[in-house]
Amino acid sequence: MRLAALLLALAGAACAAALPPPSAAEVSAVKSRDPAARAENLEHGHALYLGKCGSCHVLIEPARFAADDWPAKVERMLEEKRVHLDTDEARDLVRYLVGASAVARGGRGDG
Predict the structure, then answer these.
(1) Number of domains within the chain
(2) What is the residue range of 55's domain?
(3) For residues 51, 53, 55 and 60, what is the CA-based torsion angle, rounded to 10 degrees?
């Protein structure tokens, strides 16, 4: 039991290290789509991704999906009641995932 908890903690730490906090590049990528987005929003979204999403399943590298695909993926999780987020939390989570994906994919929103 303790070994399992230790392994989960180590896996969580590895995921957190692999998904650093958003940078100015991610903020800029999101602002081109959502001018109201601020660094604090992406930081909040990053914390939600690590905390809420990471508490239920292995985190998916944001670049695995195109930036334009993330809003629908988050919406589907909300509709299926697989995640419970208020409107602001969902918006910030999407902002983080879109920005991280866009930057990791070289600024591309699709494909």
Answers:
(1) 1
(2) 2-104
(3) -110
Provide the 3-class DSSP secondary structure of residue 51: helix
Contact 63, 104 (CB under 8 A): yes
Is the residue at 111 inside a domain?
A: no
Report the pLDDT value the prediction gives residue 17, as an integer from 0 to 100: 53
Residues 111, 49: Cα–Cα separation, whole Å: 22
Number of H helices, E strands in the chain: 6, 0
Q: What's the rounded Cα separation, in Å, for the pair 34 and 26?
A: 12
In this structure, what token pair is assigned to residue 20?
A: 């650093």
Does residue 63 sit within a domain?
Answer: yes
Is the confidence at residue 5, as pLDDT, over 50?
no
